From TrEMBL:
Substrate binds at residues 8, 12, 34-37, 54-55, 87. It comes from the Bacteria. It catalyses: dihydroxyacetone phosphate = methylglyoxal + phosphate. It comes from Baia soyae. InterPro entries: Methylgl_synth, Methylglyoxal_synth_AS, MGS-like_dom, MGS-like_dom_sf. Catalyzes the formation of methylglyoxal from dihydroxyacetone phosphate. This is Methylglyoxal synthase.
Length: 133
């Protein structure tokens, strides 16, 4: 599956710990991330992450484009609910597209854990990437 990993600064440590904890599971998936989040995950794990621009520079929008093309199956996005972001419109646009295309989004650790553990279970919607590989 194609999984997008994104985190705001205050939650990057949480994202790195999440990636470390679920590294064995994440290893068998294709990972995408915004710039800084992806770099920190790659530094802390053996995971290969396709990194886009940093969020404030357009990374959320780049991932949004993948969502629009139905190339993302799951988004783990640890949003900071306590700090306003200069690129808030980009963030909302990404979440809107996820709803448009019915893509599961985990915006906190508790939800992310439920989603990631359900990946291998029957019933998790697998999208057909064959046309885009
Ligand atoms: O700002 C972000 C998501 O909105 C994350 O971007 P970085 O991973 O580059 O910090």
């Amino acid at each position: 599956m194609n999984i997008a990993l994104i985190s705001h600064d205050a939650l990057k440590k949480k994202m790195v710990n999440f990636a470390i904890a679920y590294e064995p599971l994440l290893l068998s998936h294709r990972l995408y991330a915004t710039g800084t989040t992806g770099t920190m995950i790659m530094e802390a794990t053996q995971l290969e992450v396709h990194r886009f621009l940093s969020g404030p520079l357009g990374g959320d929008q780049q991932i949004g484009a993948l969502v629009a093309e139905q190339n993302i199956d799951l988004i783990i996005f640890f949003r900071d609910p306590l700090t306003s972001q200069p690129h808030e419109p980009d963030i909302l646009a990404l979440l809107r597209l996820a709803d448009v295309h019915d893509i599961p989004v985990g915006t906190n650790l508790a939800t992310a854990e439920i989603l990631i553990r359900s990946l291998d279970q029957e019933g998790f919607i697998k999208r057909d990437h064959s046309q885009n590989d």
